[in-house]
Amino acid sequence: MKIIIANKSHSKYAQEICDTIAESANVRGTGIARRTPEYITTKMENGNAVIALDRNNFAGFCYIEAWGHGKFVANSGLIVHPNYRGKGLAKQIKKKVFEHSRNKFPNSKVFSITTGLAVMKMNSDLGYKPVTFSELTDDQSFWDGCQTCKNYDVLTRTNRKMCLCTGMLYDPNKSTKDQEKSKPIKEKVFKRLKRIKQVLFLRKDKK
């Protein structure tokens, strides 16, 4: 198994990556912004993606998006092929793409919005902290990308202040000492936060 920075030669996996993301979203019943093979290919060609390969077999993927003229970057589309799940590969990919983001965009804040508890835990271990959406990018093109998510109506009716996703941010401008003082958040905290949001929005849906 190797986890590498993707390039143009890996574009042959773009369709399989998109299909795997879509299938995973359907199985889990979670919201996710859909991407096209052309979009994924562009990320590879620009050196803004990480891919995991088991010889010639696609095993996992994640890509980088830059927003607000590079002030913010996001690690998006994290996916592991069903044949390689349960082996800690997602955590390895997440770490690799985070390091690549920090190297390529050293002054950018790295953020994530996700409904996945596992991703929240991985983010926390890397130094991300939960934040309000107002602390994330105000780049309209980023939020427009949420339109293909099934929870987009939640985002719009709260005036983009809240959704079922949790916003998380890594700020490189904070001192190393401050980063070290901050302890990773326990998974039970994320579970409680997710339950509160689900109850809140389900009640609104029933009205």
TrEMBL record:
GO molecular function: acyltransferase activity, transferring groups other than amino-acyl groups
PROSITE patterns in alphabetical order: GNAT
Superkingdom as given in the UniProt entry: Bacteria
A Pfam cross-reference name: Acetyltransf_1
Domain N-acetyltransferase: 3-149
InterPro entries for the chain: Acyl_CoA_acyltransferase, GNAT_dom
Protein's name in the database: GNAT family N-acetyltransferase
Organism annotation: Wocania arenilitoris
